Amino acid sequence: MLAQTTDAEINQIVDRLTLEEKVYLVIGTGMDIPGMTEESNAPQAVVGTTKDKVAGAAGTSYTNKNFGFPAVVFADGPAGIRISPVREEFPDETFYATAFPTATSLSSTWNVELAKEIGSAFGREGKEYGVDFLLAPALNIHRHPLGGRNFEYYSEDPVLAGKITAAFVNGVQAEGIGATIKHFVANNSETNRTELNTVVSQRALREIYLKGFEIAVEESNPWAIMSSYNKINGTYASENEELLNNLLREEWGYEGFVMTDWFAGKDPVAQMRAGNDLLMPGTNQQATAIIKAVNNGELPEEILDRNVSNILKQYYKTPSFKKYKPTGKPDLEGHKKIARKAASEGMVLLKNIDQTLPLDQNVKVALFGVTSVETISGGTGSGDVNKAYMVSVTEGFENAGFELDGDLVSKYESYVKEERAKIPPKEMFFEKDILVPEKTWTAGELETIAENNDVAVFTFGRTSGEFQDRVVEGDFELSEEELQVIRNISNAFRSKNKKFVVLLNIGGVIETQSWKDAADAILLSWQPGQEAGNAIADVVSGKLNPSGKLPVTFPVSINDVASGKNFPGTVLDTTAPKSQNPLAGVPSEEIYEEGIYVGYRYFDSFDVKTSFPFGFGLSYTNFEFSDLKVNRDGKEITLELSVRNSGETAGKEVVQLYVKSPEGSLDKPEKELKAFAKTKNLNSGETENITLAVNAEDLAYYDPATNSWKLDAGNYRFIIAGDSQTLKLEEELFLEEKEVKTTQDLFNPEIAIEELTRN
Ligand code: BGC
User: Per the database record, which ranges form the Fibronectin type III-like domain (predicted)?
Assistant: First the structure.
C-alpha cells in the first residue's frame, strides 16, 4: 500500500486507478437483510464482498489489492456500536457493545463535555471492534412528537442539537475513527420515507433544519455525512447538487465525503454528479450504471475522480488504512460507568411536590408497571444495540438497596412472562418491539398494597423505531389501562397520605397534561441505555441530583403542535399499487407550513400553553442567577453571570440564553436559544461565574428575498432563563442593521408554501 496521504498524492493515486477500480470505491459491498426475501424486491448484496469483516456491521467498502486498500467498516449508530455479538471466526468470544443512553437522553444533559466523553467512548469501542466509521450522530430536528426516530435525534432546537453533535463528533474522531452526521437533511418523519418529498421554505431550511448541521460541520469537521432518504423540494437529498455541492462544499467549505443512506435515492449517476460520493450499502446495478454512464459520456470521469478523492482522503485516516489491529476487547467496564453517568444526567425531573424525591433509603417501595420489569434501553432499527445485559428498574432499585414489595414484584414478573409468551417474536430485527399491555389492579388489591408500603412507583414505557412514525392512541396518549392504573394507585396511596412517583421510560414526547396532577413526582428517564435501572435508582435515591432539561416541548395536546397540520405527509396517489416490499413507501409530500415555528418557537410566539416547556427540568436544590453583564467587542458578544446553589444539596444547573430580536420586515419567533452552558457540580452555597459567547452573526435571520443572513437594527434582548418560559435575568443591547452573509439562491420550493406567520 502507498503510505502517502497528502491531497496531491491521493490525486495521483486516483489518476492511476482504472474506471472499474474507481467505481468499486464509490459503492459499498452490499448487504444481506435478515428476514428479507428476494421476492420482496429488496436490493441484493453484490458478489465477492468483504462485508463480513466485522459481523453485523451495516456496511463495508471493497478492498483493492493493486493499491493495498483494505476494506473499511461502517457501523451504526446513535446509541452504541451496532454489530453482531458473535463472530464465526471467534466462537469462544463475544462482541457485545455498550448500549449508551439514546440521543434525546444525551441532549437532555445540555452538557457538551459529557457529549464529548460519550463520543470518545463510542470511538474507542468502535475502534477496538474493528469499526472505521460510526454511522452517528443523528441530528434531525424533532419537528413533531410522533417522529418515529426522534429518540435517535437530539432536539427541536438546532443550536442544542448542533452543539451536542459537534462535541460528540470531536470525541469520536479524537479516538481515530470517523463520525458520520446524518440524515442530511429534513428527514423528520418515517412514513413513506424513501418516497417522501419534503416541501420546505428556504428560510425554515436554513434557520431550522440545516443550522445544526452547519454548526457541526464548522465546529467538528465530521469525516462523513449521510444524506437522507427524502426529497427536498423535489430532488432526493442524495441527488441534490444544491445541497451537497453548492451549500455543503461551496458555502460551508466541507472537506469530508458524503454517503447515501442505505439504498437511498434512485439514480446513481445523478448521485455521483450531485457530490454524493459513496453509495451505500452498494449494489451491482449501481456499479453497472456508473460504468455505462462514464463510457457513454453521460458522466464525466472527473466527477468520479472528485468523489473517489473525497472518499480516499478520509479513508487514509481510518484504523484499517493505518493497519491498526483491533483487539476485540474495548473497556466495557469503563464504558458501562460512562453510560450510567450520562443516563442519570439526562434524566429530567418534571414534577416533585413537597420533596417526594429523593426517596428515603428505608422506605418500602411498591414498584408497579410492566416496564419496571421490561425496562427499555432504546429504540429499534439501526439505532438498536446488541448489548450484553439490561438493568431493569426492579433490579436497579434492588441494587440501590431499596426494600421492594416482593409479592408485587413476583406478580409483575409472572404476568410479564405470561403475556410476553403470547407475543410472537419479531421476524425482522428492525420491526417495532411490541410491549406487554399494562397490568391493572382492583381497588381492593391497591388498598392492601398501599397499606403494606410507604410509597408507590409506577414505570411505563414507549418504544419506536425506523420505518414507522408513532401514533396518537395508546402511544402519544396513554392507554386506558395506563390511565386507570395511574388514577387508582394515586387514590389508594394518597388516601393514606403516601406518595406516588411516576417514571417515564420513553423515547419521545407523550401526553402528560391529563394525568400529571395524580403524581407527586414525575421523573423522565427517557430510554437510558443498558444501565437504565441503576441510573434511575441513582436519581431516585438522591445519590445524584437530577440536572437534565427538556430538549423538546411537551404540549398539552397533540392538536396543539403546529407541524401536526401536515405530519407525516400526504400520499400523492392513493390508487397507486403498493409494493410487496414492506420497506418501500408510496410517493407522498409533506409541506412544512409551520415554517420556522417548530417546537418552542411556535408555543412561545403564539402563546399556546404547554404541559412542560422546552428547557424545563427541576432539581433537588435551588439556584440563583445574578450579576448579568453583556459586553460587546467587535462581532463577539459575551455575557457574564453568576450562578449560586442556594439550596441544601449539591447539584448542576443549566444556563440557557435566549435572544429576542427587534421587529423587522420579516416575522420572527418570540425568542430563540442562542447559547447554553452547564455549571460544575456546585455545593450548597457555592457560586460559579459563567461566560457565554455569541457572535452578532448568530443572531441573524435568513431573508429569502435577498438570499442573505441579516440583522435588523434595534434592541436585542438577552434573556437568561430557567426554561423557554421562565425568565431569570435580562439585558438589552442595540445592534446596527447589517447584512451578515450572502448566500446562493438554493432550494426554491416548487410550490408556494403558505407559511404560518404571526401577523
Ligand atoms: C438508517 C441509517 C443507518 C443505515 C445503516 C438506514 O436504514 O436510516 O440511519 O445508518 O440504515 O444501518
Answer: 653-724
| Size (the chain), residues | 759
Ligand 1 atom 3: the closest Cα is on which residue? 382
Domains and CATH numbers, the chain: 54-315 (3.20.20.300), 333-560 (3.40.50.1700), 621-742 (2.60.40.10)
Cis peptide bond upstream of 34, omega within 30: no
CB of 261 shorter than 6 A to ligand 1 = yes
Give the pLDDT score at 33.
Answer: 57
Residue 115 near residue 164 (C-beta atoms within 8 A): yes
Q: Can you tell me the distance from the alpha carbon of 621 to that of 610, in angstroms, rounded to the nearest whole number?
A: 24
pLDDT beneath 70: ranges in the chain:
1-4, 32-51, 580-583
Torsion, Cα of 58, 152, 541, 115 (10° steps): 80
- Whether the model clears a pTM of 0.90, i.e. scores above it, the answer is yes
Cα 45 to averaged position of ligand 1 atoms, centre (Å): 16
**Which one, of 164, 72, 88, lies nearest residue 126 by Cα?**
72
Residue 133 CB–ligand 1 contact under 6 Å? no
551: three-class secondary structure by DSSP = coil
* DSSP-derived secondary structure for 336-356: HHHHHHHHHHT-EEEEEGGG-
Say which residues have a Cβ less than 8 Å from residue 500's Cβ, sequence separation at least 6: 455, 456, 457, 458, 489, 490, 493, 494, 518, 519, 520, 521
pLDDT of residue 48: 38
Give the SS3 label for residue 11: helix
- Residue 579: its pLDDT value, please? 72
What separation in Å is there between the alpha carbon of 124 and the centre of ligand 1?
21
Phi, psi of 296 (to 5 degrees): -95, 10
